[in-house]
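Work Package 3 (structural annotation) set out to generate three-dimensional models for the target panel prioritized at the project kickoff. During this period the team completed the workflow that converts sequence records into discrete structure tokens, so that structures can be stored uniformly alongside our sequence database. As a representative example, we reproduce one entry of 274 residues exactly as it appears in the project archive.
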Amino acid sequence: MRRLFPVTEETVAEAPGGAADGGGSPGAGVADREWSLEELAAAYAYPGPTDGRREAWLRANMVSTLDGAAQHDGRSQPISSASDMRIFGTLRALADVVLVGAETVRQEGYRPARARAEFAAARAAAGQAEAAAIAIVSASLELDYSLPLFTSPLVPTLILTGAAAAPDRVAAAEKAGARVVVAGDGMGVDPARAVRALAGLGHTRLLAEGGPRLLGQLVAAGVLDELCLTVSPMLTVGDAQRISGGPAMPVPRRFELVSLLEDAGFLFSRYRRS
């Protein structure tokens, strides 16, 4: 994996091998090799505390083909790669909680985040649990409680829902071991309230993994701080969803490029809100 070019002085300093040498293109001093997990963790680190206090930071991680498809046959795995999955695992290892929509849980066969020995010391030093919690956004609470997300998570699975959720389904979720968090006044979840609720539980390093409808809601609500987007060198045609969905915004939101990595034709970009 290599950095195509450093975008800021900060990312030059972060790059393995140090800043670019004076005789080549930006980033030329970075070895064209597979990065270690420690290097990836440093490159994707969450912002540090401000005035001794850690504010909530919500990043999303998505993958898209060259023609804009976020899935193939309903799943993201066919358009991914081994390096994409390494970054996927690293982002999970850095997060306190992974935010995901109920439909994505059903389509992708979601499992609990696992503890990884390579990140155990860093998570302990940061005061994090051994693995990120999974937080499912669901208005209906129509979930399969026989899934490993509920039967064998390392940390209890969270379900974000609205105050009008059916009491019997809330009870069923809690009986299955999930922690139900109310983050909306009606049936649905208010994204800004969800971020506040998770931060109130001590989860300030937030990672959203989709699906497109959830990401669209986060963008429209103005709560997305960062997008990690993998561009897959594939063309799928078809009518697959984009990475975000929902009503068009009156004014497009502007994000700025922070870093860009490349491996085997896959581009791994990071954008932050301007």
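Strands lie at 2-3, 57-65, 97-101, 133-137, 158-161, 179-182, 205-208, 226-232, 255-263, 266-273.
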